[in-house]
Specification:
This is Aspartyl/glutamyl-tRNA(Asn/Gln) amidotransferase subunit C. By secondary structure, this protein is mainly alpha-helical. It has a domain of 38 residues. The chain is built from three helices and two strands; from the N terminus they run αααββ. The chain has a two-stranded antiparallel ribbon with strand order 1-2.
Length: 95
């Protein structure tokens, strides 16, 4: 597959990139090299290879998912401009 200058112009337009006509041959060549590299990647045999999210196998730290009030509601509400009965008070926006 080969990208022509007209196709490179269209790709630049779709990507909202301003490319002067003098730079279109270089852009087309660059896009062609990217496509060639992608064709090379498709030739790699990946049967039996597990997908991975990183280069080193790591297990994330896990904790119990427990709902709490933070343990310090008075400290949280101390910064509120208006707090009533243990809640943030906000202006009514829907009638």
């Amino acid at each position: 597959m080969s990208i022509t200058e007209d196709e490179a112009r269209k790709v630049a337009h779709l990507a909202r990139i301003a490319v002067e006509d003098a730079h279109l041959p270089a852009l087309a060549a660059e896009l062609n090299s990217i496509l060639h590299f992608m064709e090379q990647l498709s030739e790699v045999d990946v049967k039996g290879v597990e997908p991975m999210t990183g280069v080193t196998p790591m297990r994330l730290k896990r904790r119990e998912d427990v709902v709490t009030d933070g343990g310090h509601p008075e400290k949280v509400l101390a910064n509120a401009p208006d707090a009533r009965q243990g809640f943030f008070a906000v202006p009514k926006v829907v009638e």
